[in-house]
Design a protein that fits this description.
The chain has 182 residues and is α+β, with helices and mostly antiparallel strands. The chain has a 5-stranded mixed beta sheet with strand order 1-2-3-5-4, covered by helices on one side. The longest helix is centred in the middle third of the chain and has 20 residues. 15% of the residues are buried.
């Protein structure tokens, strides 16, 4: 992975985190006591139920950062139909963005909603996530420009050692799972 690609991935993550509209809303999540991989369900006092069926390590990430889950803790009357629809429609893209930070770039998602005809808002939203294969770092190319690059190319011992130190300190060594942690 090139330095430019890593920087772009970090920038995308920062943008996703900064634009998380409901990031400060708390949610209640029911999880099995034995830590099994049963779907997580968030239920608001209003009757809205949000179920996430995903591998345990990704389920926690989605429960913590998905705007739909956070808003699920609010009373139904506090959120209008347009906002519910917007959050439900935005959920797949937000899930994809969150999974990319963990190296899953081709997830399969299925979003289902069911509701009582008496309410315009959904009673249940179920999100099924199959993350697919995780990306692995296969190559690292770290190039220097300017004086450091010129000096290293000329064989200057200090410049060569500096580049080697930078390559050795890189947090995603070849063979590791891609992860864009902040």
């Amino acid at each position: 992975m090139s330095l430019a690609a890593a920087a772009a991935a970090r920038l995308a993550l920062c943008a996703a985190l900064l634009l998380g509209g409901c990031a400060s809303l708390p949610g209640y999540v029911e999880t099995p006591a034995d830590g099994a991989s049963a779907p997580a369900t968030t239920r608001a006092d209003s009757g809205l139920r949000i179920t996430i069926d995903a591998p345990p390590e990704l389920k926690a990430l989605l429960e913590q950062h998905l705007d739909l889950v956070r808003l699920g803790s609010m009373a139904r009357d506090d959120v209008d139909d347009a906002e519910w629809s917007r959050l439900i429609e935005a959920a797949p893209a937000q899930v994809r963005d969150l999974l990319q930070t963990e190296g899953y770039f081709r997830p399969q998602l299925q979003l289902e909603r069911s509701h009582d005809p008496a309410h315009a808002q959904p009673d249940e939203v179920r999100l099924r996530v199959q993350p697919g294969a995780r990306a692995r770092v296969s190559r690292l190319t770290l190039e220097a420009e300017g004086a450091l690059g010129r000096d290293a190319a000329a064989g200057d011992a200090y410049a060569v050692a500096t580049l080697a130190q930078l390559r050795g300190a890189w947090e995603l060594p070849v063979g590791s799972d891609f992860r864009n942690a902040v």
